[in-house]
Structures are given as C-alpha cells and as structure tokens.
Amino acid sequence: MSKGPQVSENRGAKRQSIPPSRFGYLALSLLFFLAGTGSIRAQVPAHAPSSVLEGFATTAASQPVGRAVVRVNGAVLTDRDLLREMYAIFPYARVHNGFPRTMEADIRSGAMQMMVFEELVYQDAKQRDMTIPSAELASAVKEFRQRFHSPQEYQQMLRDEFKGSPKLFQAQVERSLLIDRFLKEQITDKSAVSPAEVKAYYDTHTERFLLPESYSFQSISILPPPNATAPQLHEAHKRALEALRQAQATKSYEEFGALAERISEDDFRVMMGNHKAADISKLPPVVVTALAAMSTGQVSQLIQFDANDYAILRLVSHNPPGTQKFETVQGALHDQLVKEKIEHLRSVLAMRLSKNAKIEKA
Known about the structure:
alpha+beta, Triger factor/SurA peptide-binding fold, Chitinase A, domain 3, 2 domains, 4-stranded antiparallel sheet, 3-stranded antiparallel sheet, 12 helices
C-alpha cells in the first residue's frame, strides 16, 4: 500500500499505549483524579464496578489504601496517586474492571514516571512562586463540584479522599492548575512551529516524501475452503467463472464494487473491493503483471494463485513514482514537528528537574 504522508512514523508508540507525556488541561487531569475515587458515578458505565478502586483490585495484588510508594524530595506519593495516574493512562480499565494483565506492568511503570514528573513540576512551580488567581481557583473548584450528582456524593468523595476537608480538595485543584500552567509556559507555548519551518523541513528531507509506484484497483475473490477436496475445488472454479462473467459485464466502479460486496469472499468486499494505492513491492507478482497489462477501467481475466484461490481485478489507476506535494503533507508535517518539539522540550525539562532530585521508592 502507499505509505501516505511520510511524516507519520508513529514515534509516540514506543511504549505502546502509554503516552510519553500528559499535560495541558485541568479538565483532563483532574477529571481522572476524581474518577479514580469512584465518586463520580456519572463517569462510570452501569456495568462497571461501583468503585473504580474495586476494578483495580481485580488485577492488583492489593487494593490501594494510601500506602506510600515513592518520595520525591521528601513529598510522599501513595498507591492511590499511582492508581489515578494509571487510570489517566488507561481509562478503559474502568469499563473492563481492571487493567489487562499483559499491559499492567507497563502501565504501572509509565504511571509512576508521570506521577514523579508531575510532582517535580509542581515543586518547581512553587519554587518559582507561581500562583493561581483566587477567582480562577474558585471557578475550577465550582466546576468540578458540579460534576457530582448530589451534595452527598461530593461529601462522600471528601471523606474518602480528603479526610472530609474542602481545603484539601481545593489544594489538589490548585496543584493541578499550577502543573498545567507551568507545562504550558515551559512546553506548550515553546512548541510552536511556523509555516516557514515546516516548508524548510520539507525542502531538506525530500526522501521522506517519496511515493512508490502503485496501483489502485478493485478485486473480487473466490476462495475454496481450507484443505478443499477435489469436488470443492471444482465448485470454487465454477463460482469463479460465473463471477468473472458478471464482473466483465459491469460498466463502472460502482457496478463492480456492488458486485464485490455481494459475491467476493475476501475482507475487501466491505469496501467495494477497493485497494487504495497499493505499493507494487507489496503485491504478488502475478497481480502486478496483470495490472501492468490493463488500461484504466478494464476488468482482468481470472487470476489463479498457488493455493487455488481466484481473483478478478478492475484497474482504477496506475500511479507512477513521485513526490508528495507540500500542500498535501503540510498539515500532517506541522503536527508531527510540533509533537517532536513537545517531546524534546519535555525530555529536557524532565532531565533538568530530576538531575538533583531525591527520588526514593518506598
């Protein structure tokens, strides 16, 4: 298949589903913080456990109870804090009653790193005497109080998580706002990429935007069952010949596609048999040979593969090798460069904050 914009190399997937960073917005970070308490039941589907912590207990060795897991320059972070970060990374665990066993260790490790990073950010923000205006803080507290179904739910959350103290809850809101503001100043605001920078990157990395020779085509496949008997192979051949007769009677993309949807036996039938810009290096030689001999809109003869599978092709277009136009990739390239800049800035910040920090696993 065509590689598409060569700016999408999925560099952020190195840690699978664990994002390399999570920053920016109180509405996200604090929402997951509250959801971790199990108190905002509007956020939890009816089939999920009544407490998010119960869902965690299905895969964890023990239910979080406020036990210290790490100290960052003397500040104690607990297993409850760790759980909230884990749910921020993998919120689907609330629906599935816990974390997938094959992913839990990685999610826990990523959550621990993020938890420590955010604490270091918070401490640095305090050292810089950063503050949140009282009106902004009051507005944020009010907004999140309104997420509860009733005053009783809010009071239950205060008892469970903040020893019944609205001041402790407000302090958590303020902490989230400070982290967001600090990261906005240090990372988000510095990660802008200008149109000129995007164009300069395009001009100096032309190899990334090369397009291979490709064909766009439709297909109809007739497939005998696995380990087919001689009668079954004969029947498949009969069906293939009938499919060929019908395919050659079609007059357009739509007619061939409708036929593919009705009779084709491969996964492409749900897409009208369409194969978009398939790289010739990824196609079987017999298919490339057939397509190379066809004109646009032409339907092939019956093609038989080694395993007695049959295919009928309709050529949509032949796409010579070339280079993607800047206008085509400009948006995706801009987003990729911003992402790379954010990751670099975050990495530099994390290294600076942790260089002289005292981080002790509990």
